[in-house]
Amino acid sequence: MAKTSVPRASQSYTTSYLETTFGTTPAFTFAIKARDLITLHYVAVRGRDDEEGAVQRPLNARRINGIRTYILDGNTFFNSFILNWTDENFKPSFSGGKITLPIIKSVAQVIDGQHRLAGLAQAIQVRDEIGDQELLVTLCVGLTTSNAAKIFLNINTEQKPVPKSLIYDLFGEVVDDEAHAVNRATDLARELNDDPESPLYNQLKFPGAPRGQGSIELSTFVSALKEHLKPENGTFYTYKIRDFERQKAAINNFFQSLYDFYDNKQIWNSANKNPFLKAAGFNGAVDFFVEVLIKHCAEKRSFSVPTMKHFIGLDQSGLITWDELRGKDGKTARKAIRTLLESNSLNALPDHDEYEF
């Protein structure tokens, strides 16, 4: 019986590497050209491919297209791709502090970076010179599915992506005010939606979210706040609330104050009754926050929940619900919410005989 022929490695790549151990798993980190990385890798999808290390999810075409465009716009990746070498016929060799890889098609599973690699492959088809870019790889050899899953879960659940707009806080520079404001509003929305301690936890609806998940559209959140997040003349910057964490805290504390008033009546989590979970009510609340409340808090030098609740001062018997606004046009409902909050804030001002002249 004839033996199955094994393809010969006509090419190899030798380079220096850094060896580390994560737990009990040895890993080798080095730089390699994009085109060689494309050749080496393959994707093993969990539930579809019957082999050790199959932990990946099916590819998302929309995400790949976005990455391709990102690369063709002149960008690259600074974070490493993580691979698991699985081929038994050809293996990496190590000598004198260098690693030698046979450049053979589909010999290493992708543990992290499958969408980036698919986007790279498409970008190289458009512009061949992109294949000469060097990328960082961390390579493991012969991982079991269990170990591969641990690495995959560590990357995808234990770590959080840095907010895109944080570059302004770190370096004090922004290429485009409009893009920065939209990115910052989106980052704030994501943080407030994902934080279990936030009054807006799971209340924001992102594009592609399942039906029934979230009440406030991301576009509503971004549109309401983006003008106020511009570095040059936005309300937050005017009152020196400039970094991400303070902006998040101010918005969180404002909605926490509203939450405290409405949750006492068990209204807050009712999408049918809570007016702030509707576009008009949310916009009305933000109007009051950025045009009235921020100034009061700045004068008091406090953006704490107790300070905000003092100025909001809602009467528990006079809370507006969405039932009272149903049927009104968006502009009227928005104004009604702002008027409610503003009228109560006036009640928190000192009596006339407490003023000094």
What is the tally of beta strands? 11
Mean pLDDT, all residues: 84
Largest sheet: 6 strands, mixed
Please, how many helices? 13
| Parts with pLDDT < 50 across at least 5 consecutive residues | 1-7, 46-56
Determine the structural class based on helices, strands and strand pairing: alpha/beta
- Could you give the order of the helices and strands? EEEHEHEEEEHEHHHEEHHHHHHH
Fraction of residues in helices? Answer: 40-55%
The figure for the number of domains is 2
Strand order of the largest sheet: 2-3-9-5-8-4
Rg on CA atoms, Å: 27 Å
Termini separation: 107 Å
- Classify the beta-strand content into a percent band: 5-15%
Shape: elongated
Feature tags:
three-stranded antiparallel beta sheet; 2 domains; six-stranded mixed beta sheet; 13 helices; alpha/beta
Note the topology.
Blueprint: E1 12-16, E2 18-22, E3 25-33, H1 34-40, E4 41-42, H2 61-72, E5 81-85, E6 93-95, E7 98-102, E8 108-112, H3 114-126, E9 134-141, H4 145-158, H5 166-171, H6 177-194, E10 204-205, E11 216-217, H7 218-225, H8 235-238, H9 244-263, H10 279-300, H11 305-312, H12 322-325, H13 330-347
Parallel strand pairs: 4-8, 5-9, 10-11
Antiparallel strand pairs: 1-7, 2-3, 3-9, 5-8, 6-7
Helix pairs in contact: 1-3, 2-3, 6-7, 6-9, 7-10, 9-11, 10-11, 10-13
